[in-house]
Description:
Elements: H1 2-16, H2 18-28, H3 34-65, H4 70-89, H5 121-130, H6 133-142, H7 149-171, H8 173-218
Helix pairs in contact: 1-6, 1-7, 1-8, 2-7, 2-8, 3-5, 3-6, 3-7, 4-6, 4-8
Amino acid sequence: MLAFVLLSLSSLFAVIDPLGCLPFFSGLTAHQTERQKRRTLYRALVVSFCVLALFTWLGNALLALFGITIDAFRIAGGVIFFGIGLDMIQSQPRRWRTGISRSAEPAPQEADAPHQDDDPSITPLAIPLLAGPGSITTVMVLRPEIPGPTGAILVTAALVVILSLTGLIVAGADRVLGRLGRTGMRIIEKLMGLLLTVIAVQLIIDGLVPVVVDLAERL
């Protein structure tokens, strides 16, 4: 169970990638006051938790509804993770994260600032930045590893920990970016990408082994 908790924490941390959220959050909230930034971040965290918790508890029912096995989902999840991890290692922009370049732009003047209703907390911060394909796949793959409600409870607890940590890190986005600099961010991104690709390979192996065994038994 301890190994499962550590796997859940490390997987979610690598996929959600709090440090990778920093330039994105900084760019999208450049026109906001500190109070508005805190409110935007809070809403994004709450919405992303609700979405991921929903897939944690009801993900298996969705798989059963569409006749998809968990092994197939593991393989698909491994492929998704591998692609995201490879992008991180190569410092390529992830296709499901758009607008990061805005963090490098100067803050807009008051006349050019977005309207107050232009709230980025739901989209793209919560979905798909925090609760995106990678993190949704993660919780759905992790959940069945421990049968019964125990697995769902542990994954939900891991979500609370990682999203809370994400909130603490992103809340100081401007300060963290200043301390780490471009080189520090690249190093951390590549380390997280390496971890994610290793997890991806393991998921693919875990999904293929039962399939190969079943084929061997039929033959």
